[in-house]
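I have been asked to look over a protein record a colleague put together. This is what I was given:
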Amino acid sequence: MEQTTERKEGLTLRKIVERFSYGCGDFGCNIIYTAMSAFLMFYYSDYAGVNTFAVGTIMLISRVFDGISDIIMGVIVDRTKSRFGKARPWLLRMCVPFAISGILLFSVPAGLSDSAKLVYVFITYNLTSTVIYTAINVPYSSLNALMTQDPYERSVLSIFRNVLATCGTLLINLVTLPLVEFFGNNASAWTKTFFVLGFLAIAAFLINFFGTKERVKPAAAGEGGQVADVPVAEGIKSLFRNKYWIMMTCVLALFFLYYAINGGSTVYYAKTVLGDANLVGTVNGIYNAIQIISMFLIAKLVKKYGKRNVFSLGLILAAVGMLILEFGGGSMPIIVITSLIRGVGNACCGATMWAMVSDTIDYGEWKTGNRTEGLVNSACSFGYKIGNGLGSALLGLILDVSGYVGDAETQIASAVTGVRVCFIWIPIGLFAACFLILRFYNLDNEFSGIIADLQKRAEKA
């Protein structure tokens, strides 16, 4: 009896360690991703002296290249065969280049002309987002589906992923501006800041690599667990026969459009509406802290009500929080209350979205016979990067059209209105669109039967 208890305790501890290690991957990703969403436009406009509309256009155009690189990387992951699996080798290979690219992103040379600065922005932005971020994030996103087929365990892994992702977001929001001030509050201070944060990203990805294991094999796998590679054209055709993948790709594109435009406008909102750019740490600190706490309660909700319903609840709460903030007067108590509501809402969304994407992989295999973790996640990645690019471009366009001037002591009324539109009203519209799409998502009810059928196929193979 004692030995059995010890084995169970050991198993539980190993599960917790693996879940934590898995979540560290998104912690590492978010060090650069959050910086790009929340501070990159601010750095370009207020420190590097680059036109926001031009930068937004570059970000949008870059998504075309991003789409190509995502598909290529998805195919590479599906064809990777190593003793570490399909996805994990790329975490080890790309962690150092990832940190270096983040440093280069925030290192626009001050002596360059305006045109040369835009060239530098184009090159470093694409190096970071199109090449290196894709090469580490697509494998990482594929890892959930390769670790387990248990729907509850996938949800728990997704929760750990989002807890650690939120920790990364919280860290960046809390320490970036103070570190910039510590290093001199000038353009070079941003380079030094991300030199420090880059080392933290490397450590997170090493934990992710060494602490996880790939276990899932295709149902059609033969001896040795190997299966023939799915041709690219056939794999892409299979994606568009997967109705739930299409739904989740659309939802992710809309949700990450929200992330980009709301996250990117937060520092502007704090500066122009609340009167102090440093309040971004307070606003996001409360929001992210409650999101982390809420994540630990989401698993029970998912088990009882399903992923889709919990995601939908999150969208409603996030929209309500935005409306209260807009009409509540912007006082500190209102900021705290709305940050709490929005934090719970985003926890519901973040804790379920990636597990839902992993579930579409099993549905696709059941529907078409082709299991392509890398291609599914790369195509989803393309979708949400398009959303992110549109959000960044829209933010830059609205700031430019509304008359925002980075070095102005006081912004004109139209600029303040533009910031409010980006921070409040566009996100609410996006939440409504996501909610509508999710009304047609019924995979939660079908999933157990699909897994049972896949297991029967595997036994016959």
